[in-house]
Amino acid sequence: MTESKAAVPMAGVHEHVRWEIAKDKRLTEAYADSPPPPRDSPREQLLTDAIKAVTQDRNNSYGPPTQDFSRTAEMLNAMGFGWNGYGEVDGQIEPYHVALIMIVLKLSRLAWDSENEDSWLDIAGYASCGYECVLEDDE
Question: Phi, psi at residue 2, to the nearest 5°?
């Protein structure tokens, strides 16, 4: 293994996800030439598709989720909506609240049709975007 490959922080990451990351050129070219391994489970397929959705498809369509959710939160606050969650002082909707709201919407849709793969995928995507909003807010 070359020095650049050894530096790749990939321990514990499933082979298929490694290949997707390398293919997207986020880390290194270490795995880019190897074919993707077969997908092992529906949950891996769903998470891989969610990664693609939040880092490529939807990101290209709507811009970074932190900006999109910040705009949405500002609009909801301007319309008079608020947040009554634990530990909230001013009741203002924050960007990560938008992710939580969208997750609740997807849960409602799954209550209607629990086999709707798109809703499951979107929940995973909104969770990752909400987490990113929290991290950005902490900076």
Answer: -75, 170
